[in-house]
Design a protein that fits this description.
- It is a single chain.
- By secondary structure, the protein is α/β, with parallel strands linked by helices.
- The chain folds into 2 domains: 294 residues, Aminopeptidase (3-Layer(aba) Sandwich); 136 residues, Aminopeptidase i, Domain 2 (Roll), CATH 2.30.250.
- The strands form 5 sheets. Strands 1-2-3-13-4-14-20-16-18 form a 9-stranded mixed β-sheet, sandwiched between helices.
- The chain starts with 5 loop residues before the first helix and ends in a 7-residue tail after the last helix.
- Bound molecules: manganese (II) ion (2 copies).
- One manganese (II) ion binds next to helix 8.
């Protein structure tokens, strides 16, 4: 064996030597792939309502019951509370009283999409369309000429709530937004990318065959509305109260010859939500009560009654505190939270937006973001050294791999997460999430091993007996 030099030994001792997940354990892809079969099924839910509907029966199968205020839950008991069908808080009661703190994780289950306007249906040039209003930060030009599905709920004037989901199955019709042919796109191609396709051009093509009656004005519109009326029992006026949107119709797919990645819509933030969900289901008799939150409205700023700025979370914490005869402020102060949201993986096609020593890479594990925000760290949670040490200590003890990175170069932009909506309640919080390529595009890419390792990280926090000592 060749003897190491003094310098080599010193370097090994005092310099860090980060390893990718395959370098740490080459076999992890097998376990990660198995884990991600469930993830792909989870990804077929593309709106917050669909996710909630999907998880409820699974929770019941795993012994969860709907939370009832005033109940004395025993250690190990599992319960949940849904907020308006769009957000959920899932808990496993710990051995210790909640006054000693709750271990919280939160991910969002809304993703960028095209919502419909209140008066969406119109006819032009013998074609019928829906007017959309985009939801979240999108590059508008990416949403043309791809198959889109229609999802949502319509309340009819005769008192029914009709759920709609159409456009994903092979025997269902598809919908799309048209784009200009290159032959006539001279002017379009000279435009700024944010104006190449404008918001008012994101109109969903619905039909082209007219109703057979010369006395009627908008025959194609009427024919489409007739189909909607026969199929769902809705009238045009019902759109005024409806929540409908268009989402990419693609199915989640394995990606790459090695099938090491997943290509799918909505991985921001379903990758984190699924990792959280599996950790919550798997945690057994934790020391501290766990609270796994799926949030809505993150992509539009966390406002509204189902966004994390709503008091539903605080009120639920207060219920738990009251059930055990303690003050909610003491519960909050002793709690910690992982705000689980995706980060931007380094993309060799766009190296200029990243600072190579402080960005995250595919297959290097979940990325911890000590802070996010923009410019001079405006609007960021910025976790303390003590909180970072606490969380990373738990990961080390549980043999969990992680990486630390910023979203991108300082002056190029930035973004926020839910972390600030949690830390405002006096809960120590840090961001962690799966690295993503093509974030917010109709199809996003993640590495299976990263999703799996985030699950291990969250489970490590949930199973940890380490008291919060800062
Ligand atoms: Mn996100
Ligand atoms: Mn996002």
């Amino acid at each position: 064996m060749v003897k190491k030099t003094k310098g080599q030994t010193l370097a090994e001792d005092i310099l860090s030597n980060p390893k990718s997940l395959p370098e740490r354990d080459h076999k992890i892809l097998g376990k990660a792939s198995e884990f991600c079969e469930g993830y792909k099924a989870f990804l077929s839910n593309k709106t917050e309502r669909e996710v909630i509907d999907y998880v409820l029966p699974i929770l019941r199968e795993h012994g969860y019951t709907e939370y009832v205020r005033g109940t004395k839950y025993k250690a190990g008991a599992k319960f949940y509370k849904v907020n308006r069908g769009k957000t959920i808080m899932m808990c496993t009661k710990g051995k210790r009283p909640v006054a000693e703190g709750v271990r919280v994780t939160v991910a969002h289950i809304d993703s960028p999409r095209l919502d419909f306007k209140p008066h969406p249906l119109f006819q032009e040039a013998d074609m019928a369309f829906f007017k959309t209003h985009y939801y979240g930060g999108i590059k508008k030009y990416q949403w043309t000429t791809i198959p889109l599905a229609i999802k949502g709920v319509v309340h009819t004037s005769d008192g029914k709530a009709v759920r709609i989901s159409i456009g994903e199955e092979d025997d269902e019709p598809s919908f799309l937004i048209t784009d200009l042919l290159p032959h006539l796109a001279q002017n379009q191609m000279r435009k700024n990318a944010s104006e190449v396709v404008e918001g008012e051009q994101l109109n969903l093509l619905l039909g082209s065959w007219p109703y057979d009656d010369d006395k009627v004005k908008d025959k194609v519109k009427l024919a489409v509305m007739q189909i909607l009326n026969e199929k769902y029992g809705i009238r045009e006026g019902d759109f005024e109260t409806a929540e409908l949107c268009a989402v990419p119709a693609f199915k989640p797919r394995d990606m790459g010859f090695d099938r090491s990645m997943i290509a799918a819509y909505g991985q921001d933030d379903s990758s984190c939500a699924y990792a959280e969900f599996m950790a919550e289901l798997d945690v057994k008799n934790p020391e501290y009560t766990t609270m796994t939150i799926f949030a809505d409205k993150e992509e539009t700023g966390s406002d509204g009654v189902t966004g994390m700025r709503s008091f539903f979370f605080r009120d639920f914490m207060e219920d738990l505190a009251q059930d055990e005869g303690c003050e909610v402020r003491h519960v909050l102060q002793n709690s910690v939270c992982l705000s689980c949201d995706v980060s931007a993986a380094f993309d060799p096609a766009y190296p200029d937006v990243q600072e190579r020593n402080n960005c995250c890479y595919l297959n290097h594990g979940p990325c911890i973001a000590k802070y996010d925000g923009a410019r001079g760290k405006y609007s960021t949670n910025d976790a303390s050294a003590e909180m970072m040490d606490y969380v990373i200590g738990i990961f080390r003890d549980a043999d969990v791999a992680w990486q630390i990175g910023e979203l991108g170069k300082i002056d190029l932009g930035g973004g926020g997460t839910i972390a600030s909506e949690i830390s405002v309640h006096n809960i120590d919080t840090v961001d962690i999430g799966v690295p993503v390529l093509s974030m917010h595009a109709p199809i996003e890419v993640t590495a299976k091993a990263d999703v799996y390792m985030l699950y291990k990280a969250i489970l490590a926090l949930y199973q940890s007996k380490k008291p919060k000592d800062f």
